[in-house]
Predict the structure of Serine/threonine dehydratase.
Amino acid sequence: MPASSPSSHSPTLPGLSPPTHADVIAAAGRLKGHAVVTPLLESPLLNDQLGGRLLVKAEVLQRTGSFKFRGAFNRISQIPEVERANGVVAFSSGNHAQGVAAAARMLGIKATIVMPSDAPAIKIANTRAWGAEVVLYDRWTEDREAIGARISSETGATLVRPYDDPHVMAGQGTIGLELADQADAAGATLDAVLAPCGGGGMISGIALALSGRLPETKIFAVEPEGFDDTRRSLVAGQRLANTPGASSFCDALLAATPGILTFAVNGEHLAGGFAVSDAEVGRAMAVARDHFKLVVEPGGAVALAAVIAGKVAIEGRTLAVVCSGGNVDPAVYQRALSEFGI
Amino acid sequence: MPASSPSSHSPTLPGLSPPTHADVIAAAGRLKGHAVVTPLLESPLLNDQLGGRLLVKAEVLQRTGSFKFRGAFNRISQIPEVERANGVVAFSSGNHAQGVAAAARMLGIKATIVMPSDAPAIKIANTRAWGAEVVLYDRWTEDREAIGARISSETGATLVRPYDDPHVMAGQGTIGLELADQADAAGATLDAVLAPCGGGGMISGIALALSGRLPETKIFAVEPEGFDDTRRSLVAGQRLANTPGASSFCDALLAATPGILTFAVNGEHLAGGFAVSDAEVGRAMAVARDHFKLVVEPGGAVALAAVIAGKVAIEGRTLAVVCSGGNVDPAVYQRALSEFGI
């Protein structure tokens, strides 16, 4: 299949359909008291520089250091009692791994996580520290979905997909509900919301959350350059894959194609997408450090990068961005800031 | 006067007496909707390592990047209408400067800030960005209090002291009220609270806040080595000065002696103090980065450092620390983490 051909005109996942706004509301109920209601931050000095109002949803402060805990907990907490003894299995480059491991530990369920051997060391170490068994694989020669499916069929463990799962999408969508409440409390009317996009789980959940609340707010996906499959798919009106061979230090956002369920939502609800370079991401990481006092990993900083790099107009407008994760190896963080940030 | 002799047995500030618990409650009312209710963060993985429960009050997320906004706003918002046109003046190494500048801007009052010429560049730049006029002085040859008093007498501007002011102390104390509420919501019973201490404004306010709420909770001041005047004064039962000549990169905590009003409170309410080295602070800055995703300046990290360095027992106990500020020059931050943190 050529890289940029549609992978399917109307693909489906057997037995699964996208969640609804009501599912996001229900997820918020399940997460209450378990997930952190992360703050919506603002820097008046940065606003002065930008000539508009920028609100930052600080998901780096979420349990496990990224938004992924929300979807994982919403999914795992709904596994029927009789199936829990078989555990859960997931494949992930790191943030979903930690989210699943933490949610499973909180719910007393064994977790096995399939991770690429070149994932950030901090992500592998923390996944193990949460009590999960980590199975490493080679990103270039092995198929993580096949490994996950094999473990699931051998052990009966429930597979917790990173994005193409309605409960996971609904869980991530709780970010959007909080964002709407918090913007309201801050007296802000959101012209647009931008969020990082890998497989599209978070942005689709946010879109569903806001569709019932803020129908006038435009929602944009932001991806690394070379991995802007969702941006291009939105333009084409069908799921396109990335051209192999690109590289980016945004390890969390390297999905090859939009998800099936996520694109069903995103194709309908998103206003478009933006792609940002590693240098633009590095500068955004420095802005997060200096103006918001937040440590943001590369993949977590792409939406902020789109604003700082001027991809979207902010003058006289109010934008919100999600800074979605902060799990970056110290050496990578230091190098990114030294190279691009100062 | 020898450096370690008492500066006075029972000194007073004319017309001023320390605030009460009720004053802290009143301050919280004034700050509502103006200051950020900063989150109380927790890292289960770090708790596992420490064998206890550690809660982090993230004042780096406060408006202007440090707790100082609270006291400044509580003070300035009480200036009578007829005196507001004369403006305010303050002396500060940087965080109080920004707090006063931001509060003054929000209240439509002109601010003049006297800052040492070697203050962190980010602190000077941000103070100007908040609209204040900055007057630089030489820390080694000039007397900032005299410069502040002169400007005040020439212009009629109200002097906003950095800590020895009951309204400033009460404002900082609102941290303690939030901490008590948030610990309660987290099901935590606090064995002890540790906070950074320069002149002692924040720790005294927290002590007053908790005295009516959590009388069993021990409260400790943490200072840089060589600047542990409050720790030694608590032992001696009277205000002692630091021995000149010490150095520390904790620029926010270099006060020469405890304040008069602050020590009146601290002498009665604190359980003691700890001193930490620059290396211990650097490691705490790395812990804040890796476990809490927070950028903490050296002076803001001393209380966390006391816990991480094992100065206070945490095994089987619940401690809270205030990370009080995040205004660190990028190069200093990078260097501290490279030298001590990774």
